[in-house]
Amino acid sequence: METIRVGIVGHGFMGHEHETMLYNMDGYQIIGISDIDPKQLEDVKPGIKRYQSNEELFADPEIDVVLIVANNNQHHDLVIQAARAGKDIICEKPIAMNLAELDDMVKVVEECGVKFTIHHQRRLDPDFRTMKAVYDEGSLGDVYTVKSSLYGFNGNMHDWHVYISEGGGMLFDWGVHLIDQMLWMMKGAKVTSVFADVRNVINFEVDDYFKILLRFDNGVTGEIELGTYFLTDKIQEKWFERHWIMGGNKGTAYLDGFDPVGKIVRTSHLLKNVRGTRTMTAAGPTRSFGPPAEGTILTEELPKVTTKHEDYFINYHKAYFGEEEFLVKIPETRRVLALMEAVRESAKTGNSIRFES
Ligand SMILES: NC(=O)c1ccc[n+]([C@@H]2O[C@H](COP(=O)([O-])OP(=O)(O)OC[C@H]3O[C@@H](n4cnc5c(N)ncnc54)[C@H](O)[C@@H]3O)[C@@H](O)[C@H]2O)c1
After folding, report:
1. Nearest-CA residue for atom 19 of ligand 1
2. pTM value?
3. Number of domains observed in the structure of the chain
4. Residue whose CA is closest, atom 37 of ligand 1?
């Protein structure tokens, strides 16, 4: 197998994750790492160079691909420097702080003729892929709603995540993943309108809660909700919650957790809607939310998926040598960024924003 020789720019949380992932992975060799804070390089693994500067890394002829893993506000300049040095680039999400930055980056990348993609490895999350498999199979009939939610119970963000100028806030942090997943699931459908509530519940500068409603032209309403400040008294049992629910006219699918636990639920037959007929329940007559008649609820297992984050780099390797397409294409990430701008606009004005007509 041919080897892709990698340089990593930024050795914080995610830089360490990439180092661990690629250190022993077939087809990859980490040549060296740079960071503007020399302390961050103290625990670089044996056999990997530590550069005095990013410039030294970009100038190293041994490096084929640069992984940009610095703070969000650094992506623009670092991608441009890497491209001008003739390196192929994988950049962390969010691709850029805004569309103007991204267009600037793409122009230089194209001029330099280097490969460029983004690390949206959450397209491989088992919870998401399970729900995508349900959607793709079409067994729920006409799907009318998909809700994706993530709630954190810690309540605090730290370091650069609390500053707008450094690309902080949860829209940039997790929103970009959750929006990317929803758009990728609804592949081929246009988002006709966006309505969003984005709040700074306990943070001064940056958002820590959002609810986003996306109207797709395939009849689906996508809902994305995230909050970092939903408190719980069961912190020993859980410090976050991840949920999905998908409703179609032939069933419902629900899933909880990043390691998916859930079911597809159907009814064997619907009660007939007969004018003038009341349905009796233990609590009295109901004309709406009665419990189902006994034996009518049927459950099925969710589809089994086996995807994992490592698959991102397996795909990258194959795509790098022309065997398949890159999992993440730049126009897709541009659409996510454009949608995030519409989300902020809707939250600011209180109006729905027309998106793709
Ligand atoms: N894909 C994912 O799931 C995922 C998860 C976490 C973070 N990220 C992304 O990774 C990036 C880094 O996040 P993090 O959590 O590792 O942050 P971090 O603060 O832990 O690490 C960032 C590192 O980059 C260094 N740095 C800053 N500017 C630099 C520059 N100009 N040149 C070289 N080094 C520089 C910092 O000194 C720090 O060591 C962000 O873009 C973030 O959105 C992605």
Report:
1. 12
2. 0.96
3. 2
4. 37
